[in-house]
Amino acid sequence: MTSMSDSGEGLTDFGFTRVPRAEKSARVRAVFDSVARRYDVMNDLMSLGVHRAWKAVFATVLDPRPGRTLLDLAGGTGDISFGWLRRGGGAAILSDVNAAMLAVGRDRATATGRLAGLRFLVADAERLPLPAGCVDVVSMAFGLRNCTDKDAVIAEAYRVLRPGGRFCCLEFSAVQVAALAPVYEAWSFQVLPRLGAMVAGDAASYRYLAESIRMFPDQETLAGMFRRAGFARVTWRDLSGGIAAIHQGWRL
User: Fold this and answer.
1) Would you say residue 100 lies in a domain?
2) pLDDT band per the 50, 70, 90 thresholds, residue 5
3) How many helical (H) and strand (E) elements, i.e. helices and strands, does the chain have?
4) CA 159/CA 142 separation, integer angstroms
5) Cβ distance 59 to 84 under 8 Å?
6) Which of 65, 92, 208, 229 has its CA 20 to 30 A from that of 17?
7) Would you say residue 2 lies in a domain?
8) Where are the alpha helices (DSSP H) in 87-202?
C-alpha cells in the first residue's frame, strides 16, 4: 500500500482514479459535503462501531492535560476535540477544510454544551493560518489520507508545534493479520458502497473512502514521512490487526 500523491506528472490519487493535483481537494470536499450529515452514522456502520474504541485509545495517547493546547486537524464532526476536552485537556482548535463537516461539529458542540474552550477553524491542513510554535499537541484522525500533499500536512504539524510537542495521527493502515485480509477486502468493496447507497444515498463517496484507504502509505512508509519532516522518537501502534494504526512523533 503506497501513495502516488507525489507524481511528477502533476497527477495524484483520488481513490483508484488519477486526477490533476489541483482537482483533488475540490473532489474530496464534494465527498464530505455529501456525507457530512450522515457521517457519524456511517462511521458506526463502516467499522461496526469499532472506530469508537480506536478513538478512545487515541484519546489516551493524546494525554490531555489542562495546560496543553490541541490542534485537531481534519476534526470534522468533533469526536477527537470533544474527547480531549472531556478528559480535561486545555483549549482545542477544531479545524477542517470542509465547512459542512465543521458545521456538524459546531452543532454537536452547541447541543451538548461543549463550546467552552473550543475554537473552530476552516483551514487547509497543508497551509495552516497559524503561527509557528503555537500548540502543544496536533491530532489528525482519519483525515491524512484525503490530503493531496501529505508531506506538507506533516510539515505544517511540525511547524505549529512547540518544542516538546507531539503529532499524533490515527489512520487506516495495512492489515498485518493475513486471515483478516480477504474479509476486510470484501467488506470494503462489496458491503460499504451498498451501505452508502442505503443510508446516505451515496455509493460513490463510500467507494472512494474504501479506495483511499488502499492508496494510503503503510505503517513504515508513514513513519519515514514523519522522520523526514523532522519528527523524533517516531513510533506506531497497530489497532485491530493493522486495520488502523496510531503514529506519533515528537518535535524536540
Assistant:
1) yes
2) very low
3) 10, 9
4) 21
5) yes
6) 229
7) no
8) 99-112, 150-160, 180-186, 192-195
- Among candidates 70, 208, 228, which has minimal Cα distance to 152? 228
How many domains does one find in the chain? 1
Domain that holds residue 77: 11-251
| Global confidence as pTM | 0.88
Nearest to residue 32, comparing CAs of 79, 96, 100, 95? 100
- Contact between 214 and 233 under an 8 Å Cβ cutoff? The reply is no
Instruction: Give 79-106 pLDDT, tens digit per residue.
Output: 999 999 999 999 999 999 999 889 999 9
Banded pLDDT at 6 (limits 50, 70, 90): very low
Is residue 188 packed enough to be buried (19+ CB in 10 Å), middle (13-18) or exposed (0-12)? Answer: buried
5 falls within a domain: no
> pLDDT per residue over 178-191, tens digit each?
999 999 899 888 88
Please give the angle made by the CA atoms of 217, 221 and 227, to the nearest 5 degrees: 125
Q: How far is CA 42 from CA 38, 62, 85, 108, 192, in A?
A: 6, 25, 24, 16, 9
Residue 242's CATH number: 3.40.50.150
| Residues in a beta bridge with 70 | 92, 137
Q: What is the C-alpha separation between 36 and 15, in angstroms, rounded?
A: 19
Q: What is the pLDDT of residues 9-21, one digit of tens each?
A: 588 888 788 888 8
